Amino acid sequence: MTSPDATNMEEDRKRARKQASEWQVRLHNDEIREDDPAFLEWLSAAAMNAEAMDHARSIWASLGENAVTPEILKARRDALDRSRHAITRRWLSWKRPALRVAVRTAVMAFFLAGLSFAILIVGDSKDWLHESGFGGETNIASEKYGTGIGETRVITLTDNSRITLDAATQLIVRYTAEAREIELLAGQAFFDVAKDMSRPFRVLAGAQTVLATGTEFNVSRLGREIRVTLVEGEVVVTGEPRPVTDGPTLEPVKLRQGEQLVVSETGAPEVDPNANLEKTNAWRIGKVMLDGDTLEEAVEQMNRYSRIRLSIASDDLKQYRISGVFHAGDTDAFVDAVEAYLPVEARRQSATRIEFYSRS
Fold first, then answer.
1. How far apart are CA 220 and CA 184, in angstroms?
2. Where are the domains of the chain?
3. Beta strand 353-358 with 309-312: parallel, antiparallel or unpaired?
4. Which of 27, 252, 306, 354 could bridge to 119 as Cys pair (CB 3.0-4.6 Å)?
């Protein structure tokens, strides 16, 4: 149970941050100066006020770099709506300071939201938006989609964005008035995003978030790796605090056409400026393209398309490498190629299971 003292302190903290955000708006809009007596009196009244002001300044500085996130776009809409409503109330005088602050805040929110690209705002930034009166509760409609082994599926969302799900893929779609969010739970999917600057399109995969406004890209969450491959347009990939088991977070990475970001559980994130787009897109035409993949990776891919399960008997075989193009689900052709090119033999354990052993 939370103690009364802790509850009161939290309320005081929220109040201080709300007041700090109001002071920051007035400072930015030149309503007051840094040496304004009232501002200095408030600032020195409590250590919590000074801390709240530092917090407001740091968040305000970040807004220019994050101006098309759903929270900021909602702030713009809310501020503009408030200003329009205020202006239509004829009994209010333009000279009233409160109205001037409201309108100038609306204008600033408009310009901040005018940038064409942004990264995800995480953590305290979201809290500040709510404390500043820009947030609000939003009803989220979510729906889960999935495919089985050897199955692909195309879904068209309400905004005409299209998602193509590879085999053995699970994802959740969450659409609101402010944001379009997809969480990739497992597998991989190709996203053809309809342009909508007012609602950025976010794809969450483990600890990583892909943010786009209108573009084409592929995201895979297979094994211990997450790969984001950009086919057209631009996206930003950024880390978000999540459980450690979901993988590392990273600084924002902006991808351009033809680039691929690889994030593994153990290694540092890497960007390939010349990704093999033919390989990335092969699954969409029913192919599995291997280009120096390890046997372990190849087996994992082939198992997505067939109910005949492949396995590897010993770890020393997993690092053998193989190349080739196979029809998705054609396990026999893959097994034949492995036996022909690697010192490996396949033993059928049952009608639905084949295991690779070192050739004796």
1. 8
2. 4-131, 141-278, 286-358
3. parallel
4. 252
* Residue 55 tokens, joined: 């917090």
Residue ranges in the chain modelled with pLDDT below 70: 1-4, 6, 58-141, 240-250, 266-267
Whether residue 354 contacts residue 343, with contact meaning beta carbons closer than 8 Å, is answered with: no
CATH top class, domain 141-278: mainly beta
Residue 271: strand, helix, or coil? strand
* Domain 286-358: CATH architecture, name and number where available: 3-Layer(bab) Sandwich (3.55)
Give, in degrees to the nearest 5, the angle at Cα 195 between 208 and 133: 70
Burial 133-147 (b: 16+ CB within 10 A, else e): ebbeeeeeeeeeeeb
- Tell the residue number behind the tokens 């092969």, with chain if given: 282
Q: Specify the pLDDT at position 131.
A: 45
CA–CA separation, 254 and 334 (whole Å): 36
pLDDT of residue 250: 59
Crossing angle of helices 331-341/295-302, nearest 10°?
A: 170
39's enclosing H/E stretch is helix 37-45
pLDDT at 135: 44
Distances 124 to 14, 138, 241, 267, 289 between C-alpha atoms, Å: 12, 18, 11, 28, 43
Within the chain, what is the greatest distance between any pair of CA atoms? 93
Mode of pairing for the β-strands spanning 321-327 and 287-294: antiparallel
Residue 139: per-residue pLDDT: 53
167 burial level (CB within 10 Å; 0-12, 13-18, 19+):
buried
At residue 83, the pLDDT reads 40
Tally of residues, the chain: 360
